[in-house]
Specification:
GO terms for molecular function: glycosyltransferase activity. The chain is α/β, with parallel strands linked by helices. It has 15 helices and eight strands.
Length: 395
Amino acid sequence: MTVLLGGLVGALALLVLLPVSVIFVQVLLACLPARALPLVSGSRPRVAVLVPAHNEASIILATLNSIRPQLQSGDRLLVVADNCSDDTAALARSAGAEVVERRNDQQRGKGYALDFGIRHLANSAPEVVIVVDADCQVGEGAIERLASCCVGSGRPAQALYLMHAPVGSALKVQIAEFAWCVKNLVRPRGWARAGLPCQLMGAGMAFDWRDLALVDLASGHLVEDLKMGFDFCRNGKPPVFCPDARVTSYFPGTDDGLSTQRTRWEHGHLGVMLTDAPRLLVTSISRGNWNLLAMTVDLLVPPLALLSLASAAVFSLSWLMFVLIGAVVPALMASAAMAMLGVAVLLAWSRFGRTLISFSALLHAPFYAVKKIPLYLGFLIKRQVEWVRSKRDDN
């Protein structure tokens, strides 16, 4: 019985140590100088910017106004007004965008809107399609950099997509902003420094028109972007990180909106991690697809709050077993995981997060993680499987 208990606790410690090791390596690599990106010389490829929008009347104009000055003759700006009940379509037309309206109460979600828009663009196909969410601001020069990176690499390109805490936000939103920075800047920068691909992040994604035939966009998947990235990688087109192109957005200003957004993202991530990761591991190793393996290993890193909770729980359990039965190896592994995670977070904050959150505020992160326990219990009890739009301040 003692050996069995020691083995079980050791397995738990290993399950925590592996993803912690991944994020530790990613943070270390991210602190090295960034690698140069493949770009094309000469004229920029003809692009179509595709903006899926569901009841985004309050912000659609700001989004389009950040895109239009970057377009050239022959480019297209298409808004898919998806199951809208507000003035999104009319406002987009007034801003000079091409607009198509889609209505289907049975098929809801961003994937269906993207598929609808791609089929509409086929009447005059561009060279590159760039997807921008309707609540995002596109940084100056981002369209050109993304299109150039996509064509130069021959692969899908992912912009640096950051989310900011609105002015006056509660501490939990500031901590969420830092966690987002680790996920969407630090970790993909680290993998890119090693020449490895990144996950697709939903906004600021650029695709060669011919490559879109490799994936099936029409789905209501909670994290359609994550799924799409793996589909491309399996077909020999691993996404490349393009941090010189920046896309930004803001966390919802309401507790309901923030809760809905977190639940959709994290339940979607955990669902893919548990259901798809084993198959992806087998496929990548059996086919020698090391880019797919790198993306799968990255997928196996759970959200930072959950990883912190799991590390703390296993650390406590391992040392309890050491006291009771003398199992030293699990305690050492769990201690190594806690130390590596702490160093990774502090290093990421020191190098990339100082302007986002103070050190004193960062010390409250463990309490933020504890408050997310109901979200993770909800995944076990009643997982969210349908797409639900996050509520904003005004609706």
